[in-house]
Structures are given as C-alpha cells and as structure tokens.
Write a structure and sequence with these properties.
167 residues; alpha/beta; Maf protein
Length: 167
C-alpha cells in the first residue's frame, strides 16, 4: 500500500481505516511523539470518526510518555525514546489508558537535528496493539525534510494498522 503522501491521501487512508474499525465495532487510540497529533488530525478529519476514534495522546516528552501512557522510566533510559520497546509500551499504554481495543504508536527523529550515527534523522519506530493483547513493532528510515519524514510516518502508521486489521 503506497498512499498518496498529501493530506487528501492520508485522509483517504483514515477513511478506509475507520470503515474497517466501524464494521467490527472497534475503537482506536493513538500515541504520537514525532508526528505531534497528525495521525489524530487525519482521523478526526473524517465525519463520524467519533464512532471509531476514541482518543489521541501526544506524548512528545519522556515525561509525557511516562505520565500519560505509563511508559517505564527504565525502558526510556535503557533504549531511548526512539526505539521499538518504547513504541510498544506507548501502544500498550494507549489501550490501557483508553476505551479503545486497538492503538498505534509513533516515535522518531524527524530532524533536522537530533539524530546520531546509531539513530539518524528519519528513523521512526511504530507499534500497533491489538484487542488480543498482541503488539507488533517495526522501525523504518525515511528520507526528506522534517515535514516529509513526519508525513511518511503518518502514512506508514495508518497503512500498518490497515494491514494488522486484515490479519
């Protein structure tokens, strides 16, 4: 699935996602860091999204990740905020702190600063938590400027959840 990376394309993905969630009676929560609520904005751009979008958490700081999602401080210290273990904890925390059955989480380095040799600008970690307690995570590396990296992250997160729902 390669979505159009403009706002209309992102909202088309959100529409598809909403239809699939609604058909199953499921709600979604989001936990976003580097995308700053962009996924939630795409979801709420869809009329009627309150039937399937429960809430969004924007947890940009480590303190917000701990306070709002219950991410363990030791996990942040050991792996860093941009890591698959933290993305998993964010996704699981979004389900635990909401009435949603599904969640998606995004944490990454959108740049132009903040990268390192180990974690370069464009590195974004994702996780999707499911109603059965499962949680899938992965890392992607995107090219482009800050806006482009964030946009690609939003598209990948939405596409990833659509794929999870097909399983």
């Amino acid at each position: 699935m390669a979505a159009e990376l403009n706002q209309a394309g992102l909202e088309a993905l959100a529409q598809q996602l909403g239809e699939r969630l609604l058909a199953r009676g499921w709600m979604l929560a989001t936990a976003e860091s580097c995308t700053g609520g962009w996924v939630a904005q795409c979801l709420t751009a869809i009329a009627g999204s309150s039937a399937w979008f429960e809430r969004g958490f924007v947890t940009y700081s480590n303190a917000a990740k701990m306070d709002m999602l219950g991410v363990a401080e030791r996990l942040l210290e050991k792996h860093g905020a941009v890591s698959e273990p933290v993305a998993r904890a964010m996704a699981q925390g979004a389900v635990a702190h909401s009435r949603a059955q599904w969640s998606l989480a995004i944490t990454g380095i959108a740049g132009p600063t903040g990268g390192s040799a180990e974690k370069p600008v464009g590195m974004v970690c994702f996780a999707w938590a499911s109603p059965d307690g499962g949680c899938t995570a992965c890392t992607r590396y995107f090219d482009g400027d800050r806006a482009g990296i964030r946009r690609q992250g939003v598209a990948f997160a939405l596409e990833g959840l659509l794929l999870q729902l097909e399983k």
